[in-house]
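Q: Got a minute? One more chain.
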Amino acid sequence: MARKIPLLFLIVTTFSGCFLFRKATTELPFETVQIPGGAYMMGDFYKNENEDATPLHRVILGPFEMSTYEITYDQYDNYATEAGIDMPEDDGYGRGPRAVANITWDEASAYCTFYGFRLPSEQEWEYAARDTGQERLYPGTSNEEEVDNYVRHIDNSVAHSFVVGTKMPNELGLYDMGGNVFEWVGDYYEFYPEPGTDPEYKDLENFSMRIIRGGSFKMGLSVAQTWWRSGTLGEITSDNIGFRCARSIQP
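A: Always. Here it is, folded:
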């Protein structure tokens, strides 16, 4: 039987360690964290049963950096003014330092490119969320009693994206990798490869399925698990989908 792609199209449009250092930037509108390269087993390490996040497979990454926080309305509005493009809707909740939403995949990608960055790959995103690939159930912790300190989800949030950085960061110093808003990543949706095989890529000319990660203020905790993933149409906008940026570091 063919595997089904678990879409969040309806959901997202209707529901509301310190060995690293933070890199302060003057030329960029956002801070970044530098993350060393390494290898890890990507996927559902917890129960190894979610067919969308299995089989577990080994991934090797070079060093990269990622924005410390999700991109905010302030940051996106400044870019939009400079680039001469429309600003995204704020749904009446105001703008400022809260996580930007109502952004398509192409718009998120264009923002990162404008500053010499890109959207993180899915492999990078999970590696960073799991503190360089450790078996972290949620970004920052595997302890259910601590998770509210790290993740902004439906049971501890408000009806809109929140000011970034108000929960605790994970070990790498990244904030809001779990909850607040879903985050676009750079890849097209594809099933994970079986052992010894390559990923099955779609006909990208006719396939617009992208990937969102990390959960949101409208979703329960299970969606904020570090290995959780879903395919979503890249052209949609939603009040609970935003993004952060990344770029490779040359050794």
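A: Helices lie at 9-14, 73-83, 105-114, 122-129.
Q: Perfect, thanks.
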